[in-house]
Amino acid sequence: MEQEVKLLVVLWTFLGLTTVTVGLRCYVRLAIAKSFGVDDWFMVIGYGLFASLVAVLVVSIHYGLGKHALDLESYQQINAAKYLIIGELIYIIDSGFIKISVGLLLLRLAVVPIHRYILHASIYILALWTTVTFLIVAFQCRPLSLAWNPASGTGTCMAAISITRLGYAFSALDIGSDFLYAFLPVAMLWNIQMTWKLKFSICIVLSFGIFASVATIVRLKYLIALTDEADVLFAICITQMWTIIEVGIGMVAGSIATLRPLLRKMNITGLGSSDQYTRESNYKSQELGYIKQSKLNTQSSTTKVAANLGQDNDSQELIWGEDRDIHKRVDVSISRTQ
């Protein structure tokens, strides 16, 4: 199979996957949770940028991306390179929006100050480094048209190896943020009052982004193609393939993390609270990133139990959400059965 055909398959596959998952995310947040937040807006913008990236790469393929320079006319090489560079600029911004969306989602869940400080710092660093990287790539040539058509006039361009090193640095930040956002939920859930089964399921869902870092690591291997100036359109095609996989997985993983309310509605096993809490009280769902719109009330009930006579017992349920350290307390009075 030709390289450009493989890239097209990857493009349309991940456009379909992201459309479904981001669409379901919007449905959950708007129709079920009624809590559409800033993290959702960032993901929606990220999806729009991703769709634009797919469109730009399709045009680049039309002109010759994935083919050898000897098989292309001069105007094809120029146009393919132009849309490829436009795609690179979109990728940089898109990647930043998706990572920040995940950081904002975790920020809605964080209750411990140190976790919130870490997340705030990571979001600021991502925003700053994304902006700096975008500006460097946008001004790699003066004028930028020299980047895809060296004969278009006079000016200067950065060395190809410098752009490659910038790509390594940007990918390193991507990998670091992926690992941070994958493992921080473990620390966030460590002392939360919920069943281990529920903790495990939430950690797994929130850690799906680790697969995006795997794609980023693989992509690093092919960034050296940027130094192959003689046949760059052919050499860089596989890099673009892993770029789409990286961004697509990040977007799918970030959206799946918000679908727990939909899975609960479908009675998917293992995504609810403990049965004990459900029996003891009018249960208020723990959801990823929000508290459902109803008033918290302290309830008391009296239960007669044949065992454990003469003991008083308090049961606490932690409601984990954006309103931070909110607890729902259920007082259970146990009396002797006559």
Write structural notes for this entry.
- This protein has about 350 residues and is mostly helical.
- It folds into 2 domains: about 5-265, Rhopdopsin 7-helix transmembrane proteins; about 275-335, no CATH class.
- About 60% of the residues lie in helices and about 10% in strands.
- The chain contains 11 helices and 5 strands, in the order ααααββαααααααβββ.
- A 3-stranded mixed β-sheet has the order 3-5-4, with no helix packed on it.
- α1 packs parallel to α9.
- The radius of gyration is 25 Å and the shape is elongated.
- The chain starts with a helix and ends with a strand.
- Residues about 270-338 have low confidence and may be disordered.
CATH class division of the largest domain: Mainly Alpha
Beta-sheet strand percentage?
Answer: 5-15%
Q: Termini, distance in Å?
A: 80 Å
What is the CA-atom radius of gyration, in angstroms? 25 Å
Number of strands: 5
State the helix count. 11
Summarize the main sheet: 3 strands, mixed
Q: What structural category arises from helix and sheet content?
A: mainly alpha
Organism: Pseudogymnoascus verrucosus
Subcellular location: Membrane
Domain Rhodopsin: 24-265
Keywords: Membrane, Transmembrane, Transmembrane helix
